[in-house]
Amino acid sequence: MCNWAMRCLLIEDGNRLILIDNGIGDKQDAKFFGHYYLHGDDTLDSSLAKHGFGKDDITDVFLTHLHFDHCGGSIKREGDKLVPAFKNATFWSNERHWKWATEPNDREKASFLKENILPIKESGQLKYIETSADDFPGSLKVRQVFGHTDAMMLPQIEYKGRTILYMADLLPSAAHIPLPYIMGYDMFPLTTLNEKKSFLTEAQQNNFVLFFEHDPQIECCTLELTEKG
Q1: What is the pLDDT of residues 157-182, one digit of tens each?
Q2: pTM for the whole thing?
Q3: 58 close to 8: Cβ distance less than 8 angstroms
Q4: How is residue 6 annotated by DSSP?
Q5: Which of 9, 25, 37, 41 could hold 72 in an S-S bridge, CB 3.0 to 4.6 Å?
């Protein structure tokens, strides 16, 4: 089994408190968690509390994509009901990816769990981001990529004169920086290859900070071009 982090990102932007992704959640049954062994005692609640916040303080939940390990914390169980875990938040996806996730192909459908996705729309708290960055409130620029899954969104943040790019599953860990190293999860590996080449070149030339969602040890990095690549 791979040791993966599920590292979310909290952004304070004026009167908005934006959460990028929200992990696997805790509403699945024992059989499910038997496949996805959770180690350590960190939770989203405890991580928010360290910074003086709770889930009710979140104004926006930005979902890079709808695989269970990125959006599972969106929904919680209240008795027999499935309800949003962030009752005061707007949930952001995009129409193309939402359709991809709710009408999944046979290979990917095990990652798109209806109980994580459909209650978001049923709650009335879902909004779609178009390809224009102007459609998302605040200072985030939205980049779309299509290799890992269709129309995954990468938020790009300007902070203290630096650009931070949240890599989601385009570059899940530092181990995936070499161009040929592509996850077996990806739907379109050659598309991922071309996207990685483009993003890594841009990041190196502009000294971007790359934020890793899944690397268990390395949170962020910058890139240096060497003779080896």
Answers
A1: 999 999 999 999 999 999 999 999 99
A2: 0.95
A3: no
A4: -
A5: 25
